[in-house]
Amino acid sequence: MQSKNRPVGQKRASFIEEARRTQIIESAIETFSDLGYANTSLARVAERAGISKSVISYHFAGKTELMEQIVEQVYLDIAQFVLPRTEKETTATGALRANIRSVAEYMRDHRAQLLALGEIFNNLRTPEGERRYGVAFNEQVYEGREAIFRRGQQTGEFRAFDPRVMSVTVQSAIDGMFGYWVTYPEHDLEAHADELADLFEHATRAERPDEKANR
Amino acid sequence: MQSKNRPVGQKRASFIEEARRTQIIESAIETFSDLGYANTSLARVAERAGISKSVISYHFAGKTELMEQIVEQVYLDIAQFVLPRTEKETTATGALRANIRSVAEYMRDHRAQLLALGEIFNNLRTPEGERRYGVAFNEQVYEGREAIFRRGQQTGEFRAFDPRVMSVTVQSAIDGMFGYWVTYPEHDLEAHADELADLFEHATRAERPDEKANR
Amino acid sequence: MQSKNRPVGQKRASFIEEARRTQIIESAIETFSDLGYANTSLARVAERAGISKSVISYHFAGKTELMEQIVEQVYLDIAQFVLPRTEKETTATGALRANIRSVAEYMRDHRAQLLALGEIFNNLRTPEGERRYGVAFNEQVYEGREAIFRRGQQTGEFRAFDPRVMSVTVQSAIDGMFGYWVTYPEHDLEAHADELADLFEHATRAERPDEKANR
Amino acid sequence: MQSKNRPVGQKRASFIEEARRTQIIESAIETFSDLGYANTSLARVAERAGISKSVISYHFAGKTELMEQIVEQVYLDIAQFVLPRTEKETTATGALRANIRSVAEYMRDHRAQLLALGEIFNNLRTPEGERRYGVAFNEQVYEGREAIFRRGQQTGEFRAFDPRVMSVTVQSAIDGMFGYWVTYPEHDLEAHADELADLFEHATRAERPDEKANR
DNA sequence: GATGAATGAGCGTTCATTCAT
DNA sequence: TATGAATGAACGCTCATTCAT
Lengths: 215, 215, 215, 215
Description:
DNA-binding; 215 residues; disordered N terminus
């Protein structure tokens, strides 16, 4: 098994090894996406990849490692897409809007990856029975978005609100947008994202003094 | 087998029959909630109920019917709790706030039920592989909430926005609140619900004329 | 699974349950005896019993429990046969001779049982890798025989020797007799047992005073 | 593959070839000794040797040949150690004592080898299901020891007894000593060997005329 | 000489379901 | 009304071996 404990100083995984792992991961993503977590077996993944199922065992320590690799890979991929687009914005409002829109843009071309991620996210558990991933795994994402909110509150761009609740809500709204689009593929993802951006712009922006006074 | 297509004229399910079904459903809810979808087998449910597992097969046509009964029952229960609290509000804003708060209140005392519902919702598939429930199953809920939004928009209470997106987002925000609270049980659910109500109040309310003009 | 955690007060295992367990154990004994430890799979045992292999899983918690049951059952059976025949002897020499001869007699009619016992004894390991049974499991047998030797030494019937070494050696000699007979089935088991009895009689009996003096 | 049927005139196995085979055999011995027959796979042996598992397949025709090589090598090693020490004795009693003691001495420094030997001895089977080694494989050892006994009986040093039974019993006693020491490593191996020598000296020596008469 | 890659066979186990009682 | 007994299918995984490089 090349995937772990590779001796120090040894050449990195061979080309063929990397290609197989990639191929298997892609087949697994499709399988999770199409059949769902409970119906995804190594046999089905192998079938889709056109290989013997023991090939999977050869390249991955087990089903768990395969799933963890999927999560890791998809997560990195999303971050690489979304972060630059978010960070180049100067205003907090702009950053939030860019964040939502770029995630939506990513979704459009990575439906299967995000579906697979969700299946694993929602279902994979440790041997002890606790969720392997879970809301807690989003902590990093929450904190990143919280930073935007705090910044906006300090600059006076945003009203007073609980940044954590807002952050959790934005994430939920994005997840909900994805789920809705998956169910209704003809749904206009871009328009939905814009609506969400408007929604959170209104939800976060500073209130006019006289408004505040009237509350 | 007795659960469906009961011949016309036959007495309704006996007391003992109903008691057994209830007991099994409750054990199943606990099991789904504790162990997750993939680790919930009829054997485990039976073990928790302290009965033989073929008793389950006797009272339910199969695992699928058991899960469908859970969904139906929990759904009804939520609706019975939430709808009256929502409908007694007169303003759209009030209705939305009451909606969010009452769901949160329900959550607090029905953690296991909602967890089990989520497990089944996210994972149960038809024999053909499509999701048995899914976003589409929420259609009723969406429409109910959309009605509130449209009313608010007609009365001028709300600004112009896409009622469907807003409805999906409210639902997502509520689901996200639940997931967050499940992960962090010490999290203040009531405060979160109030924050959400504020959030959507800001997100929906009509803009002042001069604001609109400035955009 | 009836085999464990039977609720208190519940009727003991049903007749059919006991019959199945017995049948499976017997098939397993034959399989271990014929094919050896490494070639004995639940599939092979089931095949020999003419049942589906999942029946074994139904009646036993696992392969390990099946093997432990074999050991327990065969052990009890031997003890029930040998102990009475040994204990009715009055002299230590007589007890030793009766012990050896009765074991040999038992062997003759329980070849497969003892072979299976040996396979499991020599190979079964705990999940941590240590032998499940081993020499230490013979402790009881050793102690029983040591008691005979000590008694003989106190009465002056036996010479001075290390009772533990003698006990271990008697057991080894019996095991060796069995192994030899298994390999050469025409070998005269009874004569071998008598030779062993003579051997240990000479090896244990008290030396005459002048012999001792001359050493 | 190189190990057998090397074409005539070809140089003997290269140094590196021999070194690899030796390394693999040693790792295999450790693995059999530590993990037991059933848990010893080529993968585990390779892991311990720090080599790829197909290296084993390259140097040995298969797992079976590897095991046979272990048996052959350990057997030769024991014989080289024990035989000279036994043969230099002039009396039959002395030879027996030397035999037992030298085996015990060998054990002390070759625990793993003897354990591995035992694992293979007890478990390796032909494709037809018969034991590959077994009591019959000891024939040579038995005959060697029988020669000692017959000699002693001819010189009048030993009493009348069945030399084959005595030979089998001596071997069993030695095996038993090893097994006991493996379980209780603090057990005094040398003292045990001396006790055994005494035991068999008493068991074999000629009886005094009056003793015989009294029986 | 050496090995990474692949494979089919078989393993023990869990599963939802059926059926006779 | 209840359940013990049974089962075939499928599961994730390990195995010794083969083969191209």
